[in-house]
Amino acid sequence: MNKITCITRSMNPKLYQKMLELSDPDWNFIRVLNSSAYDYIDYIFSNDFNSKWVLNLDEDCFLTDYKKIYSLIEFLENNNFDYCGVQDGGSIPVRIHNPLVSNPFFNLFNVEKINKLEKKYRSTNKYNLDELKKKYEKHIRFTHSALKYDLYEPFYKQFFWLLEEGLIPYFNNATPFDQEKYFVIAPIGRIVPYYNSPTLIFDNNEDELAIHTWHSRYYHYPNIKKAINNCFDYAKSKNKTLSNSKRNFVEVDLSK
Fold it and tell me: What mean pLDDT comes out for the span 126-131?
């Protein structure tokens, strides 16, 4: 297997360094700056990274054992899956939208296959959600949480495009990490204050793979900073194969 490329849409250098610390130093690392989620995914889908697989990892998504990424890729390849991630609805309480889409805080993408495809999502905004549900709900693994077959996020059409191109998703199991529940008060009244829990992500063997904290953009809030740091400490305590080797990375600014 050729080297994995780990790509992260980053806004906080301290969090990015924490994420790097729990990753395999042998990977290629790219830190993407000044990008929307849509443009960031378009960047992943459109460039040759000299890797078959790209790990898309938020900077507040901390791996509990990076070696499990290799066994997950092996599972995906042996079972003809082209990408994986956590459903954006039906799986975890914090995301109640479309279960045909995986939220891009954690993904593995077979970019060797994806990058060869014409990026039709760039030229269309029209999707028949009922038809998409009818054709692809067979891939959905979880419906125990709230969901809506909607077009909630701009990046949804990129995941619809993957389905329409015949690529097959594997949806990872996930569950709230309630021991680090925190109170969220967004600025300028964008959302009603509420309690949120980080998310534990599992691999194909239902072993812990990573923990995602959400709300990293509010890392300057003391209570959220504490929860995120505690989740990092939890993930670090689970790691048995950490290396002190330096992780080198390149930065790409998509605003330029």
Answer: 92
